[in-house]
Amino acid sequence: MGSPVNSSFDDFGLALGDTGNEGYFSSNRCGDDNIYHLERASNQVVLTGTIRDRHTKLSLQGSRLILKTLDGADTLRSNAKGEFTKILDPQTDYSLVAQKLGYLSRTSFISTAGVEKDTVIKADILLNKTEGQQDIIFNKCDSLKKVFRVQNIYYDLDRFEIRPDARPALDELVKLMTQHPEISVITSSHCDSRASDQYNRILSMRRGEAARSYLISHGVDGSRVRVEYYGKTRLVNRCRDGLDCPESAQQINRRTEFDVILNDVNITQLDCGNDL
Prior knowledge:
Number of helices: 5
Radius of gyration: 23 Å
Mean pLDDT: 90
């Protein structure tokens, strides 16, 4: 059941009703054995999965999984079978970063927004071992992140055209990719919370394609630019649909972010403070 039903004291005799949403249990957490009533406050969303070696498929015991939200981060460790489990907060977006010493980190994204029933989210993560050139990247992490830092670009409401104020950042990226033909980029495009999920997903795709087209028109090989689009699933603030937010807060959600990839390592997402 997890906290607060389970505790470090002697909890026993759990009896749930027919729906499973309420019941009784016994515990000596206040000194004597007492009977407690419990009631589920909301639907439960559970994240469960494994972290394994991509090639051997062997479990990676002791791997670290960092769950990042707008409010902070929580860290899990995989068990002897490479497994992890976590009860997630409702209506929350999570960035998952899987890490293991000697392996490339892997970032993924999940969300509990809109979940209206008990749900299990399965995330089986496969990690690649690092190679010689990749180890050099890790050793020069801080300096490489500075060299390959790319500014976000932003869009007008309900539009995907490249604005004049976005061109300097894109021009700098063109210059960077010209000077370093070994890198590629991922464009991750987003919308604010207004309009439907489907509409925003298409709009964010068009924003990503517009950024890619700009780079190609300035001499960048299109094979070096991968477009990803997320609609309104990765808000950077609490301006969810229906909330009264100022336009300045909505604006920062209408964006394209750029991740720089070098030797299969995502420099932008690399954690230089990795203490595995």
